[in-house]
Amino acid sequence: MAYVTYSTLAANDSPLLDVRDLCVDFVNGSAITHAVRGVSFQLGKEKLAIVGESGSGKSTVGRALLHLHPKSARINASKLQFGSQDLLGANEAQMRKIRGKRISMIMQDPKYSLNPVVCVGKQIAEAWLTHNPGRKDEAKARAMEMLDIVRIRQPERVYHLYPHEISGGQGQRIMIAMMLITDPELVIADEPTSALDVSVRLQVLGLLDDLVQSRGLGLIFISHDINLVRSFCDRVLVMYAGRVVESIAAKDLDNAQHPYTQGLINALPEIHHRRPVLPVLQRQASWLSE
């Protein structure tokens, strides 16, 4: 039975991102950890979720696209194409022009990503100046504009605040502003709402959705929350032990065929359907070779 479809793009559509047989290995002396094994997918101007348990390889895929892994990582693929750019063969100078400019990555928790001794507005402006050196006045103006776009109240006041002076929701909006100020074509969001409470999470998701729609971006949304991606994303890639075991439209998740996807869904608690014991996912050795 086939669980994975390589692409849902129409035949005449050119993918924004084309990944084929991506493998990421981490080498530590004689020990080799196969973190990602043969992952393939295409991305258009859509919201693509990558879901799975911790350690399944979700974030490793996102970081591999931007060459963010240490030198001990070995990255191989038969194709790693972003538009006309071969990401696999790109050198560091080429990646500096892509990273943060054409592809941005929103990290999981702003308190670990923001510089604690630099005011948040200057950090947003710095993202612009990195790719537009010497244009400080324009950088501040763009940063103020982005604060308004991400619905920060009193942007002039918040511009001069330090990370410890803002809330978690504001911090995540700051990170989104920083990653979108350069008008990227592709955004990788690595569990951007996991540190937020439910109400703020919905606000941030609504903001991301509005920005993706208005700017025509491609979005890779990395998450472990199936219920969240079911309502937010267009397609879902389900990863297990470094492999994509199923690719499915988000609206069709209830019809998932792979037993791993079914197990993840069945293990979710339901408010309106109480069960005394949630089922435990029964893993099978055959999943590693599919």
Summarize this structure briefly.
The chain is 33% helix and 23% strand. It is of the alpha/beta class and 290 residues long.
State the helical fraction.
25-40%
Mean pLDDT: 89
Give the strand tally.
11
Radius of gyration over all CA atoms, rounded: 20 Å
The sequence of SSEs as H and E is EEEHEEEHEHHHHHEHEHEEH
| Strands ordered across the widest β-sheet | 7-8-9-3-10-11
Give the helix tally: 10
- How widely separated are the two ends? 10 Å
Q: What gross morphology would you assign?
A: globular
What share of the residues does DSSP label as strand, in percent? 15-25%
Counting helices, strands and paired strands, the structural category is: alpha/beta
Poorly predicted tracts of residues? none
- Main pleated sheet: 6 strands, mixed
Describe this entry's structure for a reader.
The structure is a single chain. The protein is globular and about 60 Å long. The strands form two sheets. The protein has a six-stranded mixed beta sheet, with helices on both faces. Strands 1, 2, 4, 5 and 6 form a five-stranded antiparallel beta sheet that branches. The protein starts with 16 loop residues before the first strand and ends in a 24-residue tail after the last helix. It is α/β, with parallel strands linked by helices. It contains ten helices and eleven strands.
Q: Which helices and strands occur, and which strands form pairs?
A:
Blueprint lengths: L16 E12 L2 E13 L3 E5 L6 H8 L7 E4 L2 E4 L2 E2 L5 H7 L4 E4 L3 H4 L6 H12 L4 H14 L5 H5 L8 H13 L5 E5 L7 H18 L2 E6 L2 H7 L2 E6 L2 E7 L9 H8 L24
Parallel strand pairs: 3-9, 3-10, 7-8, 8-9
Antiparallel strand pairs: 1-2, 1-4, 1-5, 5-6, 10-11
